[in-house]
UniProtKB/TrEMBL annotation:
This is Amino acid transporter transmembrane domain-containing protein. InterPro entries: AA_transpt_TM. Keywords: Amino-acid transport, Membrane, Transmembrane, Transmembrane helix, Transport. GO terms for cellular component: membrane. The keyword Acetylation does not apply. It is found in: Membrane. The chain crosses the membrane at residues 16-39, 81-99, 141-165, 231-252, 272-290, 334-355, 361-379, 391-413. GO terms for biological process: amino acid transport. Signal peptide: none annotated. It holds the Pfam family Aa_trans. It comes from Corymbia citriodora subsp. variegata. Its main location: membrane.
Length: 430
């Protein structure tokens, strides 16, 4: 649920100010929590106690709302996951580049002598993911979530700690109470930035694209729905607390000059070894996050191919591994997953930021997966009468979120021109 996006919350609060920033974060924490609870109820169709289990988000929509909406959901879900996989490559590469760049500065003390190109790091990350993608049932490995939580704790606490140290040293809190109070940009540019921050915060609480798939990995006792709801409640509280701390401390330190990610922006340059640890933790967490985004796509494609050509999926080649049990290699899995990782890696090198923004605009931001489908499925499943108080309340929630999602999507458009101009293909560098 949580990830390196926590380091961008300071920029989001900077666009909205000290009052609106935390208020918007609390608002979307409630929206994300509530709609996640609605979605978790859809794991079993019609009657949760005796209904059919849906192992994917698309299955839920198909069984409750029908085929046409299921196809739309599938397109949006896998587009979001694909975008997430590309984002993992880009962010991990930026952290690896930051480690190299900061160590170069520490050794040479001359900024002009340090130049770091991102392509080798993206390729290294891609090779790692090719190897990991061949591990059977990677998403079922129990200790992955523990590693992710530990890494998240490391880089979040380092970021918060550095922020507290900076504020204590300066003796003052930077920032503004105004909603539009960042930098020397024009009023129009500030409005776009506010819209973008709105979408960033909303998306930070949108984990619906993997919620059902995650719920399907939970054992049957106690029931998956009860266990998932407890996890959602606890995670939302922890996530909001960390978001608030990182966001507010970052804004207090940098004020109107708050960067998108203060651990790779070089605004903190000492102690460099602590920043190295934080960025290394980011890389490790993103190695697993890439697989979390990719595994549902792998499973979907392999399921569809298996339905049409079962012998192609079932074919195995037994490879003896000295000292270990033999590895059953599936040629289709090897080729398909390798091609997928190569594709995401090449796109990351070509368009490190632009491609994801285009996908976000096409998918209309956070609204469809986070709000629309959970609300519509809940209404249908619980057979809530049209124009009843609850029906009207749910529709008002959905429409309000649609308006905010449109605003956030519009806020991305002006930045596309700058991204095209500032980022040349295969040219991401420090």
């Amino acid at each position: 649920m949580v990830g390196t996006g926590v380091l961008s919350r300071a920029w989001d609060i900077a666009q909205l100010g000290w009052i609106a920033g935390p208020a918007v974060m609390l608002l979307f924490s409630f929206v994300g929590y509530y709609t996640a609870l609605l979605l978790s109820d859809c794991y079993s169709t019609i009657i949760p106690q005796a209904g059919e289990r849906n192992s994917t988000y698309m299955d839920c929509v198909d069984s409750i709302l029908g085929g046409a909406k299921a196809k739309a959901c599938g397109i949006l879900q896998y587009m979001t996951l694909f975008r997430g996989a590309i984002g993992c490559i880009v962010q991990a590469s930026l952290s690896m580049m930051a480690i190299k760049y900061m160590n170069c500065l520490h050794e040479s003390d001359q900024e002009n002598s340090c130049y770091v190109l991102g392509n080798p790091y993206m390729i290294t990350f891609g090779i790692t993911e090719i190897l990991l993608s061949q591990i059977p049932d990677f998403d079922q490995i129990w200790w992955l979530s523990i590693v992710a939580a530990v890494m998240f704790g490391i880089y979040s606490l380092i970021g918060i700690g550095l922020g507290i140290a900076q504020v204590a040293a300066s003796g003052s809190l930077k920032g503004s109470l105004k909603v539009i109070g960042v930098g020397d940009a024009t009023e129009t540019q500030k409005i776009w930035s506010c819209f973008q921050a709105l979408g960033n915060i909303a998306s930070a609480y949108s984990f619906s694209e993997i919620l059902i798939e995650t719920q399907d990995t939970i054992g049957s006792a106690p029931s998956e729905v009860k266990t998932m709801k407890k996890a959602i409640s606890l995670s939302t509280v922890v996530m909001t607390s960390i978001y608030m701390l990182c966001g507010c401390m970052g804004y207090a330190v940098f004020g109107d000059d708050t960067p998108q990610n203060f651990l790779i922006s070089l605004r903190f340059d000492k102690p460099f070894w602590l920043l190295d640890i934080a960025n290394a933790a980011i890389v490790i967490s993103l190695v697993g996050a890439y697989q979390i985004n990719s595994q549902p796509i792998f499973a979907f494609v392999e399921k569809k191919v298996g339905q049409r050509w079962p012998e192609l999926i079932a074919k195995e080649v037994k490879i003896p591994v000295p000292g270990l049990r033999q590895y059953n290699m599936k040629p289709f899995r090897l080729v398909w997953r390798t091609v997928f990782v190569i594709l995401t890696t090449v796109i990351s090198m070509l368009f490190p930021f632009v491609f994801n923004e285009i996908l976000d605009i096409i998918s209309l931001g956070f609204w469809p997966l986070m709000v629309y489908f959970p609300v519509e499925m809940y209404i249908r499943q619980k057979q809530i009468p049209r124009w009843s108080t609850k029906w009207v309340s749910l529709q008002m929630l959905s429409m309000a979120c649609l308006v905010m999602s449109i605003m956030a999507t519009v806020g991305l458009i002006p930045g596309l021109k700058d991204d095209f101009k500032d980022n040349s293909p295969f040219g991401m560098s420090y």
